[in-house]
Write a structure and sequence with these properties.
By secondary structure, the chain is α/β, with parallel strands linked by helices. The chain contains 16 helices and five strands.
Length: about 325
């Protein structure tokens, strides 16, 4: 059952406009998880509250010793994201952190000057949003609507920029770090022009960053209203998915009863047969835009890897052709548990 009490623990950190989405832990870290979520983190993520800050310090020491030129955030709340995403395995958490920064260096067209105002056109179009109510497992629902985008509107990479900013905002609250998220992708209106974008090479890069370089748990991907051409779209994505993640893709077609068996109608808007409020594209866009200064500090400064020497295995392959993309590393969309 959902631990809804835990969703209100950040309300004192937020203005009234933002109170529907939990905020990040306070600057001087204090755990904001409810007892039930602490128990869940212990069971699923190997997180022991009595050792939590000791584990953070261990990871911090590893970074300072092994990557002294990595100018990354070292605060407790930030490092906890990576420990939770890798079940408190120090070595794997460090690898994830390096991949996180490596992806940013390898794809400057996504990460340069990355801030909400630079993707306002994507948000206004309604390519993505986050539903205001989590599902019964406490997981927020990221709603993607690729059919809203047309290739003549703007480059596809702008969608990636908006997606990354959304994930960055989503991962701030500890409840999301523990519960993970669910994706709802509505393919209404998707035709050949969208299906030919981004292509296998760009798809590989998006998948690589999300699977190896971002500390979030993607627990399910629900596809609805997929056209016949979706088989071709999924054929581009599937080579990069591990079996465990591929099994979390559920195709519902236009069957809303099937969707409701995975995502309750009580948290869905009427457009998806639900009983929650109408789909509001402005709320999430406004929340991101109010975070402009926060993202300027995070992404519009000298790159954290400047001067850091990393092995090739920790950097993304930025070269190649679309044919190379099909033959390249077959991996999952996100390494989740």
């Amino acid at each position: 059952m959902a631990d809804y009490e835990s969703l209100d623990v950040h309300s004192h950190l937020l203005g009234p406009e933002e109170s529907w989405f939990p905020g990040p832990p306070p600057p001087l870290y204090t755990c904001t998880l409810s007892p039930a979520l602490e128990a869940k983190a212990r069971d699923e993520l190997q997180e022991k509250p009595e050792w939590r800050l000791r584990d953070v310090q261990a990871l911090r020491d590893m970074i300072l010793k092994e990557q002294p030129n990595l100018h990354t955030r070292l605060d407790d709340a930030f490092l906890l994201r990576f420990l939770r995403a890798r079940k408190f395995d120090y070595d794997r958490a460090l690898q994830l952190l390096l991949k996180y920064h490596g992806g940013r260096r390898a794809w400057p067209e996504v990460f340069s000057d990355l801030k909400p105002s630079s993707v306002k056109h994507v948000l206004d179009l309604g390519f993505l949003t986050v539903l205001p109510r989590p599902d019964p497992h406490g997981r927020y629902i990221l709603c993607l609507r690729p059919g809203r985008w047309k290739p003549n509107d703007y480059p596809f990479v702008d969608n990636v920029r908006a997606l990354y900013l959304t994930l960055e905002k989503l991962i701030q609250p500890e409840v999301v770090q523990v519960n993970g998220i669910v994706i709802l992708a509505d393919y209404s209106g998707v035709g050949m022009s969208q299906a030919s974008n981004p292509g296998p090479f760009l798809a590989k890069k998006v998948v690589s960053i999300l699977q190896d370089g971002f500390p979030i748990r993607i627990k399910a991907v629900n596809i609805i209203n997929e056209p016949r051409i979706f088989k071709g779209i999924f054929a581009i994505i599937k080579p990069f998915l591990k079996e465990k993640m591929a099994e979390r893709y559920v195709l519902h077609g236009s069957d809303l009863r099937s969707l409701h068996s995975h995502v309750p109608g009580s948290v869905l808007p009427p457009v998806y047969g639900g009983t929650a409020a109408d789909l509001d594209l402005s709320a999430w866009a406004a929340l991101l835009l109010r975070s402009e200064e926060e993202f300027i500090v995070e992404f519009c400064q000298p790159h954290p890897l400047e001067g850091a020497a990393l092995p090739d295995s920790l950097l993304y392959d930025g070269d190649g052709t679309e044919e190379d993309g099909f033959r390249a590393l077959r991996s999952q969309l996100y390494y989740c548990y």
